[in-house]
Structures are given as C-alpha cells and as structure tokens.
C-alpha cells in the first residue's frame, strides 16, 4: 500500500510503562473462540489466490459468505471498494459484501462526511448487521484510526466491536492487511523502525535528540505502541516485515511489552503473506508468497555497549534472541511453541548445499539482502558459515551490529516451490544486537588489490537483419508466471510452436523436464517439445553417460533438427557448461550453434533463464559479486559455486545473441549492480546500456524494432556509463553513472536509449508522496533493501531527499554509494496487482567512492 509510515502518535513505551492500562488485555475471556484469523502483512496482490481462497473458505465459502469491510484505517474508500471487487472476482455475490460505516474521519474521495460515522458505532442497526456476517476484513492504512473508531472515549468497546467479538467467538473469520493486521494483537505497534526502536526504546533515552536536522526531523522513528483489539491473544504481531525491515522493532516491542515471553512468540508477517490462526487447533498456518518471522524472546536480555562515545551515554542492545522464519505451508503450534513442516521439505543441517564465505549484510550491494534469503543462503544452508553479521546506523555512524549465529538447535528446511524456486524455512537462529559506532573515511589503498581483466573476446558477428527475438529471464522463473511463459510461446509461433530445450547448464534433468511440463500446462503439445542431447558432462540420476553428448555439437542430424525449431530454451545452472557444450575446443562455433544462429536470424525466439540469460551477450558474466568486482577486479580462474556466489568477477565469451550490451541476471536477489558496472566500464561499449534482470522477470528483445520490453514480476536495471568519470589510477572510484529501473509494461530503445514508461503510471517529480529524512541503507534492518525499492521510496518519491547513501564493506574496507537526483531524474508510479506500489525510475546519478571502515 502506498502509505506514509505511521507517525509517532504516542510516546514510546519504556520498560517502566509495562504495567500501565495501555497494555491491559483487550479481552479477558478468550477461551472457546470458534472463529479464525487471517492476518496479512500488507501488499496483498489481487492474484494471491491462496490468501483470498483461504479467507473465503473460512467465511463459509463463496456461496454462503457474508462479508463486512471496515474502511476506518484508510483516508479514502478506494481500498475498501477495491477489496470488494476482488472478492466478487473470486466468486462472492456483490450483495453479500458490505462496506461498513465505521470511521472516525472523513474520506477524501467521497461527497459525504464520514467523520459522523464515529457516533454510529453504538447503533443497534450496525451491530445487528455485523451479527449477521460470517467475516470481517480490516483494510490497511493507520491502525490507530481503527481502534479509535471502534472504541469509546473511555476506552471501552463500542457495540460494533462487541458484535465483531460475538461473531468471532461463534465462528466468523476476522481478517485484515497492514494496519488491519497490526490491530489483531493486544499490544499494537503503531510506529517506529528498527533503528529508532533500538536507539530510543530500550533504556537509551540519552540518544533521543542525536542526529536531528534543523527541522527537528530524525532519520529514524522511535517505537510506539498502544492497546490493540486483541483478537490474537498469543503474542505481538507486526507487518510489512520484509519490505520495511522491522525485525529490530518487533524484538524491542516484544522485549518491552510482551507479558509472557516464556509462553508467547512474537510474529512479523511479510507483505503478500498471511498467518492464518486456527483457534480450535491452536495453530498458525503460513499462506501466500513470502514468510512469517517468529521471535522467541524467552531468554532475551539487555546487552550493554563496551565503549562510551561523546554526546552519548552507554547504549543498550539485546542478546539471546531466537529467530525463526517460516514459509507458506509451514505451521506453528503457538501453545507448544513448536513448528511443523511439509513432508517434502528436507533438512539442511548436515546436508548444506552451499559452501562460500558470505559477506556481512551491509547495504544494497549485499547478495541476498533481505532477511529470510540472507539467513537461508549465507548461514543456515551454508556449511562454511557459523555466523553472519549485519549493521544498522544513522548518518553519523551511531548504531548496532546484528550478529546471527547457528545454535545447536538451528536448522533449515528446503524444497522447490512454484517451479524451481528455492523455498526455505529457518528455525532457531541466534541473534545478538550490540551497540556499535561505524566510521567511514576515504581510502587511498584499494587500488593495490585490484586486478584488471585480461579477458579479450573476439567480436561476434553483428547482424542487422535478425528476424528473431530473445526472451531473457533473470532466474527463479515461477511456473505460475503466465506473462513470461505466454510471451515465449507466442514469440515461438503459438501453441503449435516447436521448442528445443538445451539442458547443458544443469547437473540434472529436473529443470528441463519441469520446463517441458510447464509449456504443456500452458497449452503446448508434448510431441512439439524436445530436450536436446546437448551437454559436455554427465547428469545425476540417469543411466546414460551424457558426457558423451559433447560430440553431438557437430552432429549434422542434430543441427538439421535444430533448424526446424521455432524456439530454443536454455535452462539455468552454470553458464560455462552451455558455452562448453556448443563451442569447439578452438573457440569456433559448432554446427549446432551455427544452426541455432540460422533459426534465430530467420525468425525463431531464443530464451533462457539464469545461466541461460548470461550466455546471451558477447561478454558473459560468469562469476563474482558486486563487492568482489569493485574491490578485487577480475580473475582468470573459475571455481564453480564459490565463484558464482562471490569474489572477483570472472568473464568468458558468451554466445552473442544479444547485440546491444551486457546482460546480468539474479539482479535483485544477488545485488549485482557493482559487478555489472565494473564489467561494463572495462569491457562494455560506453554508448550502450547494460542490463540487469531481476528474478522471475524477463527482458524481451525485439530486434526489428530495436526495443526491449519488461515482462514478469520484477524489473530491469539499466546502467548508462556514457557520462561516467573514473580515475584509471584508482579503480572503482566512479562519478556520474546513470541508473534507471523499469518494470513490466515499460520499454527502452536499445540504440537511442529512450525509455518509454507504461502510460498507466504518473510522474512523481514535484508530486512526491513522501517527505522524510532518510538515513543510509545499511543492511537487514534497513527498509527497502532491494535497489529499486530503495531508490523509489527513499529518493525519487521523497520530497526531502536530494541524495541517499548506502555502504558496502567487509572488515575495514568498502565503498560509499551516493545516489543523487539530477535534472534528468524522474519517477513514475502506479498501483499494480491490487494495491501494490509499482515504480519506474529514470536517470538517477550514482557515485561510488572507496572508503576505510572503523567499527567500535
């Protein structure tokens, strides 16, 4: 939801205030509740069938459901009307859905004055209407408005609220999103962020006025809580957990305000996700697209700083917190404080898939920069890591180190979901939050470790008359991503297309088999799809030795078959295995590769995901991460997984199907902007754009129109080095890099670099929605941890921001990233998939400066 962060409406709650009436239980008698709760973390997409279907099922089914929508949290009726339309789309009769007259304020998009509704909450007619419902839904906005609308001035429940409790006890489902989730617990979090909660809400009163600007506004917001409606009696609930990085705020709220830490967890619900509470079974099920963070604060205690700083007294942190993160399909027994996982999930403990040295999570250049992904790949499923760190601090460097560690009871559970997306559950990671001071200074020695690339690819032929197209997917392509699949099928000639799948990148046949199954699901005939015998290595789990297929690259029969296809798909894995399976030892094109070029030039579509995207450009990015590429430059050696996950950049010659610049993939999840910049500066054409494709997203290349279109669920980052200034004697010191981010429906001309924004979006320039003082993006406790969201919320749609900073560092060296608005900068916004914010960003300027780091 496009909402400002809720202002601090009451003073932050200190330990001394825990016994105040503010935190008294909302309902004393909560036994034998027959109803259920659907508590959504915000940003619920209209297409999120699982949440909508679960809510309607608990409401009695589409035919019998009678639903009341409470609009009180919002400033308009738009979100309520939109939710009603969504319910109708899911099969509910429109006459069975009512927007209830519950509000303490007027709505800006209507003619009547809804502030008069406040006086109606004790009317018998309204309470009678509510008693005839099977479900109530609270829309998002400001949670305090919900509570104020349903409680009387003396704090007692209105007749309307009593009626909601009555139907809930008898079996109705109560649901809500964002603010509608916050009101569910007794202790309702009403404001604050992780840094503000830590700095000002656990005995750190001395820090209150640090780092205020002339206008008195701070870069962070203290924690504030008040009495919620208490439908959920078994712990504190917070929302927008992943996008707004609220784990620190939830930890402080639970430490300060939870009455029974031994018995209750604290819960943080991600966007587009819901925790479904079954009161009868005393269980919670996770439903939707992301996860629910679960904090065990039973052994938590204050942790003091070891040093003193001028202007500040000793600060406190927290230690001995246990963090778990559950995924859709997982269940929590909140009475026993235990977890249940689907039977097809396998344990990671003792069977870790990864083995690489993960960097600390420090900002938007950190791979897996969101909490769940970072804990999964960088710690729990990584045998090389026993602990991993992140940081949060203000622009003066006052902040905290967050240390995550494996305990004896730490474990992970993994499976594929929605095709071949990794789905992790995480149990009992230890977390300690320690006060630290982080200081940055310019670095004059970074160049001593930097190695330039020795890679010099021969130029691929440039064809002006390519009739075919490309569909280049950034990885983790969901089977449910119909827009990408249908686009590929249509470009291949429709459901009668003939598709060849190249399995070479993978070590198993699973990804090729799954992609074939997906194409059939989308309407293609099985006999028109073939997994081609192209590989230079054996596959696991088969009786045949596929390494013998290497000779097939020069098979006349296979080459002839390829020429008769209308589409080729390259699956993901290791991109060097694809090039090694299609190029001769002397580097020349094999007969099969020549045949692929023939079909492509004559109108076929070539597609691929992950590794199958990396091979598309002439210079192929095959290894390294952003910090490694900027710090150490390039390497001539390749170490498979370790090189893919981090270290200096590794380049090879790609297949050159994409003629207009460099392509990189997994761009959002693996934070590869730095490695793309370093590679484009050394090996790219400065007059061309470079392209970073997010996961579950495709870049569709129309060679005839010289145009790229974005399709899927993420975005594409465009890097323009035409005006870059760099110090060749001091690598990775850049100025005036232009960054743009485009999303589905946007287009860009590959030769003129002109960006055409989806006409449904409106410009944010001089019409910014936010006006906030912004601190640096620092890691897992910083909101908007993905590059595009960081630039959108904190810079391009923020009237106060002229520039924003992020830092990437490891031990005592790193980089300061400064993103600036320029005369050319603009943002464009629209709601998409319900009421999710969808931003495009045009021509933000980026400067990168090497720094020294001191942490005390």
From TrEMBL:
Molecular function via GO: peptidyl-dipeptidase activity; serine-type peptidase activity
Any coiled-coil regions, as ranges: none
Reactions performed catalytically: [L-4-(L-arginin-2-N-yl)aspartate](n) + H2O = [L-4-(L-arginin-2-N-yl)aspartate](n-1) + L-4-(L-arginin-2-N-yl)aspartate
Biological process annotations from GO: proteolysis
CDD domains, per database record: GAT1_cyanophycinase
EC number: 3.4.15.6
Protein's UniProt keywords contain Signal: yes
Signal peptide: 1-26
Disulfide bond keyword on record: no
Keywords of the record: Hydrolase, Protease, Serine protease, Signal
Protein origin, superkingdom: Bacteria
Listed PANTHER family: CYANOPHYCINASE
Family (UniProt): Belongs to the peptidase S51 family.
Function: Exopeptidase that catalyzes the hydrolytic cleavage of multi-L-arginyl-poly-L-aspartic acid (cyanophycin; a water-insoluble reserve polymer) into aspartate-arginine dipeptides.
Name of the protein in question: Cyanophycinase
């Amino acid at each position: 939801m496009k909402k400002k962060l809720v202002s601090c409406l009451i003073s932050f709650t200190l330990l001394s205030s825990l016994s105040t009436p503010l935190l008294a239980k909302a309902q004393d008698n909560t036994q034998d509740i027959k109803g259920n709760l659907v508590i959504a973390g915000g940003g619920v997409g209209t297409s999120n069938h699982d949440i909508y279907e679960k809510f309607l099922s608990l409401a009695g089914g589409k035919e019998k459901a009678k639903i009341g929508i409470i609009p009180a949290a919002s400033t308009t009726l738009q979100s309520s009307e939109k939710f009603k339309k969504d319910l109708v789309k899911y099969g509910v009769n429109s006459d069975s859905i009512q927007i209830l007259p519950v509000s303490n304020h007027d709505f800006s998009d209507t003619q009547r004055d809804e502030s008069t509704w406040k006086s109606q909450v004790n009317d018998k007619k309204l309470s009678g209407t509510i008693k005839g419902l099977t479900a109530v839904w609270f829309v998002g906005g400001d949670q305090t408005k919900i509570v104020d609308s349903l409680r009387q001035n003396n704090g007692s429940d209105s007749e309307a609220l009593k009626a909601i409790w009555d139907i809930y006890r008898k079996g109705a489902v109560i649901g809500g999103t964002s603010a509608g989730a916050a009101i569910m617990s007794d202790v309702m979090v009403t404001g604050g962020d992780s840094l503000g909660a830590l700095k000002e809400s656990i005995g750190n009163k001395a820090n209150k006025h640090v780092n205020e600007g002339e206008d008195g506004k701070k870069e962070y917001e203290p924690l504030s809580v008040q009495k919620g409606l208490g439908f959920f009696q078994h712990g504190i609930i917070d929302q927008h957990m992943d996008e707004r990085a609220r784990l620190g705020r939830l930890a402080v709220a639970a430490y300060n305000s939870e009455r029974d830490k031994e018995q209750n967890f604290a819960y943080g619900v991600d966007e587009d996700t819901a925790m479904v509470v079954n009161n009868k079974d005393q269980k919670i099920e996770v439903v939707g697209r992301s996860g629910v963070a679960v904090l065990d604060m039973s052994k938590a205690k204050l942790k003091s700083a070891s040093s003193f700083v001028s202007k500040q007294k000793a600060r406190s942190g927290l230690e001995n917190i246990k963090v778990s993160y559950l995924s859709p399909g997982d269940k929590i027994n909140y009475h026993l404080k235990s977890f249940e996982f689907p039977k097809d999930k396998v344990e990671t403990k003792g069977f870790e898939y990864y083995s690489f040295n993960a960097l600390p999570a420090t900002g938007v250049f950190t791979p897996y920069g969101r909490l769940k992904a970072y804990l999964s790949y960088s710690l729990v499923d990584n045998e090389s890591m026993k602990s991993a760190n992140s940081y949060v601090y203000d622009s003066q460097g006052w902040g905290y180190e967050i240390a995550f560690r494996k305990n004896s009871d730490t474990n992970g559970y993994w499976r594929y979901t929605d095709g071949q997306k990794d789905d992790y559950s995480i149990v009992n990671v230890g977390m300690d939050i320690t006060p630290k001071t982080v200081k940055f200074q310019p670095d004059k020695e970074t160049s001593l470790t930097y190695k330039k690339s020795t890679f010099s690819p021969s130029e691929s032929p440039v064809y002006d008359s390519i009739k075919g197209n490309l569909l280049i997917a950034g990885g983790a392509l969901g089977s449910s991503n119909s827009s990408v699949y249908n686009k590929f099928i249509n470009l291949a000639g429709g459901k009668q297309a003939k598709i060849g799948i190249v399995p070479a990148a993978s070590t198993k046949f699973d990804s090729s088999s799954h992609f074939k199954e997906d194409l059939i699901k989308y309407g293609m005939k099985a006999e028109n799809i073939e997994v081609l015998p192209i590989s230079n290595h054996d596959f696991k789990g088969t009786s045949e030795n596929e390494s013998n297929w290497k000779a097939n690259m020069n098979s006349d029969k296979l080459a002839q078959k390829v020429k008769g296809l209308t589409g080729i798909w390259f699956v993901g894995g290791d991109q060097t295995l694809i090039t090694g399976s299609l190029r001769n030892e002397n580097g020349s094109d094999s007969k099969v590769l020549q045949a692929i070029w023939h079909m492509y030039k004559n109108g076929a579509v070539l597609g691929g995901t992950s590794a199958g995207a990396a091979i598309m450009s002439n210079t192929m990015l095959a290894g390294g991460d952003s910090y490694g590429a900027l710090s150490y430059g390039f390497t001539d050696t390749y170490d498979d997984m370790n090189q893919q996950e981090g270290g200096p950049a590794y380049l090879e010659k790609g297949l050159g199907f994409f003629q207009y610049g460099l392509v990189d993939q997994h761009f959002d999840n693996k934070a590869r902007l730095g490695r793309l910049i370093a590679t484009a500066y050394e090996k790219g054409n400065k007059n061309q754009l470079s392209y970073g494709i997010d996961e579950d997203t495709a870049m569709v290349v129309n060679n005839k129109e010289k145009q790229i279109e974005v399709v899927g669920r993420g975005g594409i980052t465009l890097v323009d080095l035409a005006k870059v200034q760099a110090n060749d004697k001091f690598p990775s010191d850049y100025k005036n890099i232009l960054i743009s981010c485009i999303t589905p429906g946007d287009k860009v001309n590959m030769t003129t670099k002109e960006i055409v924004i989806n006409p449904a979006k409106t410009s944010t320039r001089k019409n910014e929605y936010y006006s906030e003082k912004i601190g640096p993006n620092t890691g897992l406790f910083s909101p908007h941890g993905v590059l595009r969201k960081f630039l959108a919320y904190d810079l391009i749609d923020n009237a106060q921001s002229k520039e924003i900073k992020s830092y990437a560092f490891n031990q005592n060296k790193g980089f300061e990233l400064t993103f600036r608005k320029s005369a050319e900068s603009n943002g464009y916004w629209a709601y998409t998939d319900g009421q999710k914010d969808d931003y495009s960003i045009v021509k933000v300027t980026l400067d990168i400066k090497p720094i020294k780091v001191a942490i005390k």
